[in-house]
Design brief:
The chain is an alpha+beta fold. It has helices at residues 35-48, 84-97, 116-124, and strands at 3-8, 14-19, 25-29, 52-58, 64-70, 73-78, 102-105. The protein has a single domain (3-124), classed as PH-domain like (Roll). The protein contains 3 helices and 7 strands. Strands 4-5-6-3-2-1-7 form a 7-stranded mixed sheet. The protein is globular, with a radius of gyration of 17 Å.
Length: 125
Amino acid sequence: MGAFVISRRFNDEYKFVFTSRKGKVIFTSLSYELKFECEEDIEKFKLNVDQARFLKFKGSGGKYFFKLMLGEVHFATSRKYTTELLLQKGIKEIVTYSSKSEILDFSSNESIFEDEEVVEEEEVE
């Protein structure tokens, strides 16, 4: 099952990505000034995924992508795909799993991993 992952952009705004069951990013949201706005839009999307529209495009480099629309609002943009079939599989993953997907919050500045120096010191001992 996929997951919604909240994180921060370099400008301190929030964003989320939807990842596939294999951990690949399928789409990235627009920016949010406040984290609760991000969380609210994820919940709104999960409840209304059946109303989402996927506008498909082919970029100048020959890769495929889609813009995810919720109502008339541009909600997110997909990653680039090499074929239309892979793009369609990404859309199917969203439709199938997004309403049941968990939300993971990695937006705090605290490191979720041990400091590299600490790990190296432990390995030396």
